[in-house]
Amino acid sequence: MEDNNSSPGSPKENPDQENEAGKVTKDDGSLENMVRRIQDSMSIGKRHKFWETQPVGQFKDIGDSSLSDGPIEPPTPLSEIKQEPYNLPNSYEWTTCDMDSEETCLEVYNLLKNNYVEDDENLFRFNYSKEFLGWALRPPGYYPSWHIGVRAKASKKLVAFISGVPARIRARNDVVKMAEINFLCVHKKLRSKRLAPVMIKEVTRRVHLENIFQAAYTAGVVLPTPITTCQYWHRSLNPKKLIDVGFSRLGARMTMSRTIKLYKLPDSPATPGFRKMELRDVPAVTRLLRNYLSQFVVAPDFDETDVEHWLLPKESVVDSFLVESPETHEVTDFCSFYTLPSSILGNQTYSTLKAAYSYYNVSTKTPLLQLMNDALIVAKQRDFDVFNALDVMENESFLKELKFGPGDGQLHYYLYNYRIRDALKPSELGLVLL
Fold it and tell me: Where would I find the Glycylpeptide N-tetradecanoyltransferase C-terminal domain in this sequence (predicted)?
Protein backbone atom coordinates (compact mmCIF):
# COMPACT_ATOMS: atom_id res chain seq x y z
CA MET A 1 0.00 0.00 0.00
CA GLU A 2 1.72 2.99 -1.01
CA ASP A 3 1.19 4.89 2.08
CA ASN A 4 3.53 7.55 1.15
CA ASN A 5 5.28 9.59 3.73
CA SER A 6 7.05 12.39 2.02
CA SER A 7 7.50 16.09 1.95
CA PRO A 8 4.39 16.41 3.89
CA GLY A 9 6.38 13.47 5.43
CA SER A 10 4.10 11.97 7.99
CA PRO A 11 2.84 8.61 9.07
CA LYS A 12 -0.55 7.66 7.75
CA GLU A 13 -3.30 5.24 8.35
CA ASN A 14 -1.67 2.12 9.76
CA PRO A 15 -3.93 -0.89 10.18
CA ASP A 16 -2.40 -1.78 13.53
CA GLN A 17 -2.13 1.50 15.29
CA GLU A 18 -4.10 4.31 13.78
CA ASN A 19 -1.55 7.02 14.56
CA GLU A 20 1.66 5.12 15.04
CA ALA A 21 4.71 7.25 14.24
CA GLY A 22 7.29 4.80 12.98
CA LYS A 23 10.38 6.99 12.99
CA VAL A 24 13.63 5.07 12.67
CA THR A 25 17.25 6.05 12.66
CA LYS A 26 19.00 6.23 9.31
CA ASP A 27 21.77 3.71 9.97
CA ASP A 28 19.72 0.72 9.02
CA GLY A 29 22.37 -1.51 7.66
CA SER A 30 23.44 -3.65 10.56
CA LEU A 31 21.56 -6.56 12.00
CA GLU A 32 22.17 -5.19 15.52
CA ASN A 33 20.41 -1.96 14.58
CA MET A 34 17.50 -3.86 13.08
CA VAL A 35 17.14 -6.05 16.14
CA ARG A 36 17.48 -3.09 18.53
CA ARG A 37 14.81 -1.14 16.66
CA ILE A 38 12.49 -4.12 16.68
CA GLN A 39 13.01 -4.62 20.42
CA ASP A 40 12.35 -0.91 20.92
CA SER A 41 9.14 -1.15 18.98
CA MET A 42 8.03 -4.23 20.90
CA SER A 43 8.83 -2.60 24.21
CA ILE A 44 6.40 0.25 23.60
CA GLY A 45 3.70 -2.28 22.94
CA LYS A 46 3.73 -1.83 19.18
CA ARG A 47 2.39 -5.22 18.22
CA HIS A 48 1.51 -5.66 14.58
CA LYS A 49 -1.49 -7.91 15.16
CA PHE A 50 -2.76 -7.57 11.60
CA TRP A 51 0.57 -7.86 9.79
CA GLU A 52 1.67 -10.85 11.89
CA THR A 53 -1.18 -12.80 10.25
CA GLN A 54 -0.11 -11.85 6.70
CA PRO A 55 2.39 -13.47 4.31
CA VAL A 56 5.03 -10.79 4.73
CA GLY A 57 8.59 -10.93 6.05
CA GLN A 58 8.36 -11.14 9.85
CA PHE A 59 10.77 -9.42 12.25
CA LYS A 60 11.54 -12.77 13.93
CA ASP A 61 12.90 -14.10 10.61
CA ILE A 62 15.55 -11.41 10.11
CA GLY A 63 18.93 -13.04 9.57
CA ASP A 64 17.47 -16.56 9.16
CA SER A 65 19.64 -17.91 6.33
CA SER A 66 17.49 -21.04 5.90
CA LEU A 67 14.73 -18.96 4.26
CA SER A 68 14.95 -18.45 0.52
CA ASP A 69 13.97 -15.48 -1.64
CA GLY A 70 10.64 -15.76 -3.44
CA PRO A 71 6.94 -16.27 -2.66
CA ILE A 72 6.14 -16.89 1.01
CA GLU A 73 2.89 -18.78 0.35
CA PRO A 74 1.90 -20.67 -2.82
CA PRO A 75 -0.92 -19.25 -5.00
CA THR A 76 -4.43 -20.04 -3.71
CA PRO A 77 -6.54 -22.08 -6.16
CA LEU A 78 -9.28 -19.85 -7.60
CA SER A 79 -11.98 -22.12 -6.15
CA GLU A 80 -10.67 -21.42 -2.62
CA ILE A 81 -10.67 -17.64 -2.91
CA LYS A 82 -13.53 -15.98 -1.05
CA GLN A 83 -16.10 -14.99 -3.69
CA GLU A 84 -18.00 -12.32 -1.74
CA PRO A 85 -16.59 -9.12 -0.22
CA TYR A 86 -15.52 -8.92 3.43
CA ASN A 87 -18.04 -7.55 5.91
CA LEU A 88 -17.94 -3.85 6.73
CA PRO A 89 -19.45 -2.25 9.85
CA ASN A 90 -23.26 -2.08 9.42
CA SER A 91 -23.68 1.50 8.28
CA TYR A 92 -21.08 1.22 5.48
CA GLU A 93 -21.05 -0.44 2.06
CA TRP A 94 -18.47 -1.23 -0.63
CA THR A 95 -18.43 0.70 -3.88
CA THR A 96 -16.25 0.27 -6.95
CA CYS A 97 -14.97 3.69 -7.99
CA ASP A 98 -15.19 4.25 -11.75
CA MET A 99 -12.22 6.52 -12.44
CA ASP A 100 -13.56 7.21 -15.96
CA SER A 101 -16.47 9.05 -14.32
CA GLU A 102 -15.74 12.74 -13.74
CA GLU A 103 -18.07 12.72 -10.72
CA THR A 104 -16.44 9.69 -9.02
CA CYS A 105 -12.94 10.96 -9.78
CA LEU A 106 -13.89 14.23 -8.05
CA GLU A 107 -15.17 12.31 -4.99
CA VAL A 108 -11.89 10.35 -4.69
CA TYR A 109 -9.93 13.58 -5.23
CA ASN A 110 -11.86 15.37 -2.44
CA LEU A 111 -11.54 12.46 0.01
CA LEU A 112 -7.75 12.38 -0.48
CA LYS A 113 -7.42 16.17 -0.54
CA ASN A 114 -9.05 16.45 2.89
CA ASN A 115 -7.90 13.25 4.62
CA TYR A 116 -4.66 11.91 3.12
CA VAL A 117 -1.04 12.22 4.30
CA GLU A 118 -0.07 15.19 6.48
CA ASP A 119 3.31 16.09 7.92
CA ASP A 120 3.98 15.77 11.67
CA GLU A 121 3.24 19.45 12.32
CA ASN A 122 0.01 19.41 10.25
CA LEU A 123 1.29 22.19 7.99
CA PHE A 124 0.96 20.32 4.67
CA ARG A 125 -1.28 17.68 3.14
CA PHE A 126 -0.82 15.88 -0.18
CA ASN A 127 -3.10 17.22 -2.91
CA TYR A 128 -2.98 14.76 -5.81
CA SER A 129 -4.75 16.36 -8.80
CA LYS A 130 -7.68 14.66 -10.56
CA GLU A 131 -5.47 14.35 -13.66
CA PHE A 132 -2.77 12.69 -11.57
CA LEU A 133 -5.25 10.20 -10.08
CA GLY A 134 -6.57 9.35 -13.54
CA TRP A 135 -2.99 8.65 -14.65
CA ALA A 136 -1.91 6.77 -11.53
CA LEU A 137 -4.97 4.52 -11.40
CA ARG A 138 -5.45 3.64 -15.08
CA PRO A 139 -2.19 2.17 -16.43
CA PRO A 140 -2.26 -0.40 -19.26
CA GLY A 141 -4.31 -3.47 -18.25
CA TYR A 142 -5.70 -1.90 -15.05
CA TYR A 143 -8.63 -3.59 -13.25
CA PRO A 144 -11.56 -1.26 -12.44
CA SER A 145 -12.52 -3.66 -9.60
CA TRP A 146 -9.26 -2.73 -7.79
CA HIS A 147 -10.45 0.87 -7.22
CA ILE A 148 -12.29 0.25 -4.00
CA GLY A 149 -14.34 2.73 -2.02
CA VAL A 150 -16.44 2.63 1.13
CA ARG A 151 -19.63 4.69 1.33
CA ALA A 152 -21.85 5.61 4.26
CA LYS A 153 -25.12 3.79 3.50
CA ALA A 154 -27.37 6.65 4.61
CA SER A 155 -25.68 9.60 2.87
CA LYS A 156 -23.86 7.66 0.08
CA LYS A 157 -20.80 9.81 0.93
CA LEU A 158 -17.42 8.30 0.00
CA VAL A 159 -15.56 7.85 3.31
CA ALA A 160 -12.63 5.56 2.46
CA PHE A 161 -10.60 4.41 -0.53
CA ILE A 162 -7.85 1.97 -1.47
CA SER A 163 -6.49 1.07 -4.90
CA GLY A 164 -4.36 -1.43 -6.74
CA VAL A 165 -2.85 -1.34 -10.22
CA PRO A 166 -1.09 -4.21 -12.01
CA ALA A 167 2.68 -4.11 -12.51
CA ARG A 168 5.50 -6.41 -13.53
CA ILE A 169 8.29 -6.17 -10.99
CA ARG A 170 11.60 -7.96 -11.24
CA ALA A 171 13.03 -9.22 -7.96
CA ARG A 172 16.58 -10.43 -8.63
CA ASN A 173 16.07 -12.73 -11.66
CA ASP A 174 12.31 -13.30 -11.41
CA VAL A 175 9.79 -11.05 -13.12
CA VAL A 176 6.65 -11.24 -10.98
CA LYS A 177 3.15 -9.97 -11.73
CA MET A 178 2.22 -7.80 -8.77
CA ALA A 179 -0.31 -5.28 -7.61
CA GLU A 180 0.96 -1.88 -6.54
CA ILE A 181 -1.28 -0.88 -3.66
CA ASN A 182 -1.77 2.83 -3.05
CA PHE A 183 -3.98 5.66 -1.76
CA LEU A 184 -5.24 3.90 1.37
CA CYS A 185 -7.25 6.69 2.94
CA VAL A 186 -9.93 6.70 5.65
CA HIS A 187 -11.94 9.82 6.52
CA LYS A 188 -10.46 11.50 9.60
CA LYS A 189 -13.68 11.03 11.60
CA LEU A 190 -13.67 7.27 11.02
CA ARG A 191 -10.11 6.46 12.04
CA SER A 192 -11.30 4.50 15.09
CA LYS A 193 -13.53 2.19 13.04
CA ARG A 194 -10.65 -0.15 12.07
CA LEU A 195 -11.61 0.04 8.40
CA ALA A 196 -8.03 -0.18 7.12
CA PRO A 197 -7.43 -3.91 7.80
CA VAL A 198 -10.75 -4.84 6.13
CA MET A 199 -9.87 -2.67 3.13
CA ILE A 200 -6.45 -4.30 2.80
CA LYS A 201 -8.04 -7.76 3.00
CA GLU A 202 -10.65 -6.77 0.39
CA VAL A 203 -8.13 -5.39 -2.11
CA THR A 204 -6.03 -8.54 -1.54
CA ARG A 205 -9.07 -10.73 -2.27
CA ARG A 206 -9.79 -8.86 -5.51
CA VAL A 207 -6.14 -9.07 -6.58
CA HIS A 208 -6.19 -12.83 -5.92
CA LEU A 209 -9.29 -13.17 -8.12
CA GLU A 210 -7.11 -11.98 -11.04
CA ASN A 211 -4.58 -14.71 -10.24
CA ILE A 212 -2.01 -12.29 -8.80
CA PHE A 213 -0.57 -13.14 -5.39
CA GLN A 214 2.19 -10.58 -4.79
CA ALA A 215 2.09 -6.84 -4.15
CA ALA A 216 4.37 -3.86 -3.60
CA TYR A 217 3.60 -0.89 -1.35
CA THR A 218 5.28 1.77 0.72
CA ALA A 219 4.53 3.34 4.08
CA GLY A 220 5.90 6.06 6.30
CA VAL A 221 5.65 3.70 9.28
CA VAL A 222 7.64 0.59 10.16
CA LEU A 223 5.62 -2.56 9.57
CA PRO A 224 6.83 -6.14 9.20
CA THR A 225 9.26 -5.97 7.33
CA PRO A 226 10.73 -3.33 4.98
CA ILE A 227 12.81 -4.58 2.04
CA THR A 228 14.57 -1.22 2.33
CA THR A 229 14.18 2.17 3.98
CA CYS A 230 14.75 5.32 1.94
CA GLN A 231 15.29 8.92 2.91
CA TYR A 232 13.62 11.92 1.30
CA TRP A 233 15.85 14.80 0.19
CA HIS A 234 14.58 18.26 -0.77
CA ARG A 235 16.07 20.88 -3.07
CA SER A 236 14.74 24.42 -2.65
CA LEU A 237 13.71 26.10 -5.89
CA ASN A 238 11.70 28.92 -4.29
CA PRO A 239 13.47 29.28 -0.91
CA LYS A 240 11.60 32.40 0.23
CA LYS A 241 8.20 30.73 -0.12
CA LEU A 242 9.45 27.49 1.49
CA ILE A 243 10.69 29.44 4.50
CA ASP A 244 7.54 31.62 4.67
CA VAL A 245 5.27 28.57 4.83
CA GLY A 246 7.41 26.66 7.35
CA PHE A 247 8.61 23.94 4.96
CA SER A 248 12.22 24.94 5.60
CA ARG A 249 14.04 27.28 7.97
CA LEU A 250 16.58 30.00 7.40
CA GLY A 251 20.01 28.51 8.10
CA ALA A 252 22.16 29.72 11.00
CA ARG A 253 24.00 32.94 10.05
CA MET A 254 22.07 33.06 6.76
CA THR A 255 20.01 35.98 5.47
CA MET A 256 17.09 35.56 3.08
CA SER A 257 19.01 37.23 0.23
CA ARG A 258 22.03 34.94 0.73
CA THR A 259 19.71 31.92 0.80
CA ILE A 260 18.02 32.99 -2.46
CA LYS A 261 21.44 33.44 -4.04
CA LEU A 262 22.62 30.03 -2.77
CA TYR A 263 19.75 28.23 -4.51
CA LYS A 264 19.73 30.30 -7.70
CA LEU A 265 19.85 28.26 -10.92
CA PRO A 266 20.76 29.16 -14.52
CA ASP A 267 17.88 30.24 -16.77
CA SER A 268 18.13 27.34 -19.19
CA PRO A 269 19.56 23.79 -19.35
CA ALA A 270 23.26 23.47 -20.18
CA THR A 271 23.32 20.17 -22.07
CA PRO A 272 23.26 20.36 -25.90
CA GLY A 273 20.34 18.32 -27.26
CA PHE A 274 18.36 18.45 -23.98
CA ARG A 275 14.66 18.46 -24.92
CA LYS A 276 11.19 17.31 -23.89
CA MET A 277 10.37 13.65 -24.57
CA GLU A 278 7.93 12.97 -27.45
CA LEU A 279 5.85 9.97 -28.53
CA ARG A 280 8.47 9.04 -31.17
CA ASP A 281 11.05 8.64 -28.37
CA VAL A 282 9.21 5.80 -26.60
CA PRO A 283 11.29 2.94 -28.15
CA ALA A 284 14.61 4.68 -27.42
CA VAL A 285 13.62 5.60 -23.84
CA THR A 286 12.37 2.04 -23.23
CA ARG A 287 15.75 0.63 -24.34
CA LEU A 288 17.65 3.10 -22.13
CA LEU A 289 15.44 2.37 -19.11
CA ARG A 290 15.39 -1.42 -19.43
CA ASN A 291 19.14 -1.51 -19.76
CA TYR A 292 19.63 0.81 -16.78
CA LEU A 293 17.10 -0.85 -14.46
CA SER A 294 18.59 -4.31 -15.05
CA GLN A 295 21.37 -3.51 -12.53
CA PHE A 296 19.03 -3.14 -9.51
CA VAL A 297 17.86 -5.97 -7.24
CA VAL A 298 14.19 -4.86 -7.38
CA ALA A 299 12.92 -2.78 -10.32
CA PRO A 300 9.93 -2.53 -12.67
CA ASP A 301 9.98 -4.54 -15.90
CA PHE A 302 8.83 -1.80 -18.30
CA ASP A 303 7.85 -2.38 -21.93
CA GLU A 304 7.02 0.32 -24.50
CA THR A 305 3.35 0.44 -23.48
CA ASP A 306 4.36 1.10 -19.85
CA VAL A 307 6.90 3.75 -20.85
CA GLU A 308 4.32 5.52 -23.02
CA HIS A 309 1.85 5.59 -20.13
CA TRP A 310 4.15 6.37 -17.22
CA LEU A 311 6.78 8.61 -18.84
CA LEU A 312 5.34 10.44 -21.82
CA PRO A 313 4.91 14.05 -20.59
CA LYS A 314 1.44 14.89 -19.31
CA GLU A 315 0.56 18.45 -18.32
CA SER A 316 0.71 18.95 -14.51
CA VAL A 317 1.29 15.20 -13.99
CA VAL A 318 4.65 14.01 -15.31
CA ASP A 319 7.55 15.75 -17.09
CA SER A 320 10.23 13.87 -19.03
CA PHE A 321 13.31 15.16 -20.82
CA LEU A 322 16.05 13.48 -22.78
CA VAL A 323 19.36 14.24 -24.39
CA GLU A 324 19.51 13.60 -28.13
CA SER A 325 23.04 13.79 -29.48
CA PRO A 326 23.18 16.72 -31.93
CA GLU A 327 25.60 14.70 -34.10
CA THR A 328 24.24 11.13 -34.12
CA HIS A 329 20.62 11.85 -33.01
CA GLU A 330 20.97 8.96 -30.57
CA VAL A 331 19.00 9.35 -27.32
CA THR A 332 21.68 8.99 -24.65
CA ASP A 333 20.16 10.26 -21.40
CA PHE A 334 16.79 10.65 -19.76
CA CYS A 335 15.30 12.34 -16.69
CA SER A 336 11.76 12.65 -15.35
CA PHE A 337 9.76 13.97 -12.41
CA TYR A 338 6.10 13.90 -11.42
CA THR A 339 3.97 16.70 -9.99
CA LEU A 340 2.54 16.29 -6.51
CA PRO A 341 1.41 19.52 -4.85
CA SER A 342 0.59 19.81 -1.17
CA SER A 343 -2.11 21.97 0.35
CA ILE A 344 -0.60 24.46 2.79
CA LEU A 345 -2.82 24.39 5.87
CA GLY A 346 -3.71 27.59 7.71
CA ASN A 347 -1.45 30.02 5.81
CA GLN A 348 -2.92 33.42 4.89
CA THR A 349 -0.70 34.01 1.85
CA TYR A 350 -0.17 30.64 0.18
CA SER A 351 -2.53 27.70 -0.38
CA THR A 352 -0.38 25.30 -2.45
CA LEU A 353 3.18 24.04 -2.39
CA LYS A 354 4.18 22.84 -5.85
CA ALA A 355 6.55 19.89 -5.54
CA ALA A 356 8.37 17.90 -8.22
CA TYR A 357 9.35 14.33 -7.35
CA SER A 358 12.31 12.70 -9.07
CA TYR A 359 11.04 9.66 -11.00
CA TYR A 360 13.32 7.67 -13.37
CA ASN A 361 16.67 9.05 -14.56
CA VAL A 362 19.24 7.39 -16.83
CA SER A 363 22.62 8.84 -17.66
CA THR A 364 24.94 7.20 -20.19
CA LYS A 365 26.78 10.14 -21.86
CA THR A 366 25.79 13.20 -19.82
CA PRO A 367 27.08 13.07 -16.21
CA LEU A 368 24.13 12.39 -13.86
CA LEU A 369 25.01 15.52 -11.88
CA GLN A 370 24.68 17.70 -14.99
CA LEU A 371 21.51 15.92 -16.15
CA MET A 372 19.83 16.44 -12.77
CA ASN A 373 20.95 20.06 -12.63
CA ASP A 374 19.14 20.51 -15.97
CA ALA A 375 16.09 18.79 -14.45
CA LEU A 376 16.18 21.32 -11.58
CA ILE A 377 16.40 24.18 -14.10
CA VAL A 378 13.34 23.03 -16.09
CA ALA A 379 11.41 22.40 -12.84
CA LYS A 380 12.22 25.96 -11.75
CA GLN A 381 11.09 27.25 -15.19
CA ARG A 382 7.78 25.46 -14.56
CA ASP A 383 7.30 27.25 -11.21
CA PHE A 384 7.93 24.32 -8.87
CA ASP A 385 8.79 25.41 -5.32
CA VAL A 386 10.79 22.33 -4.34
CA PHE A 387 12.34 19.26 -6.02
CA ASN A 388 12.19 16.06 -3.94
CA ALA A 389 14.18 12.87 -4.43
CA LEU A 390 14.62 9.59 -2.60
CA ASP A 391 18.11 8.13 -2.16
CA VAL A 392 17.20 5.19 -4.46
CA MET A 393 19.13 4.06 -7.56
CA GLU A 394 22.14 6.36 -8.06
CA ASN A 395 20.45 9.46 -6.64
CA GLU A 396 22.83 9.66 -3.70
CA SER A 397 25.63 10.65 -6.10
CA PHE A 398 24.08 14.07 -6.84
CA LEU A 399 22.04 14.99 -3.75
CA LYS A 400 24.62 16.90 -1.68
CA GLU A 401 26.40 18.36 -4.68
CA LEU A 402 23.16 19.84 -6.06
CA LYS A 403 22.23 21.33 -2.65
CA PHE A 404 19.52 18.90 -1.64
CA GLY A 405 19.01 18.68 2.12
CA PRO A 406 17.81 15.58 4.00
CA GLY A 407 14.14 15.71 4.99
CA ASP A 408 12.62 14.11 8.06
CA GLY A 409 10.45 11.85 5.92
CA GLN A 410 11.45 8.22 5.49
CA LEU A 411 9.77 5.82 3.15
CA HIS A 412 9.73 2.08 3.81
CA TYR A 413 9.27 -0.26 0.85
CA TYR A 414 7.41 -3.56 1.28
CA LEU A 415 6.58 -6.63 -0.77
CA TYR A 416 3.51 -8.73 0.05
CA ASN A 417 3.89 -12.52 -0.17
CA TYR A 418 7.42 -12.21 -1.51
CA ARG A 419 10.56 -12.55 0.57
CA ILE A 420 13.79 -10.69 -0.09
CA ARG A 421 15.90 -12.33 2.59
CA ASP A 422 18.48 -9.61 3.10
CA ALA A 423 17.34 -5.99 3.34
CA LEU A 424 18.52 -3.91 0.39
CA LYS A 425 20.47 -0.68 0.43
CA PRO A 426 18.37 2.14 -1.10
CA SER A 427 20.89 2.19 -3.97
CA GLU A 428 19.91 -1.41 -4.85
CA LEU A 429 16.29 -0.41 -5.39
CA GLY A 430 15.20 0.68 -8.87
CA LEU A 431 11.50 1.24 -8.11
CA VAL A 432 9.65 4.51 -7.50
CA LEU A 433 6.03 4.22 -6.36
CA LEU A 434 3.77 7.28 -6.65
Answer: 244-427
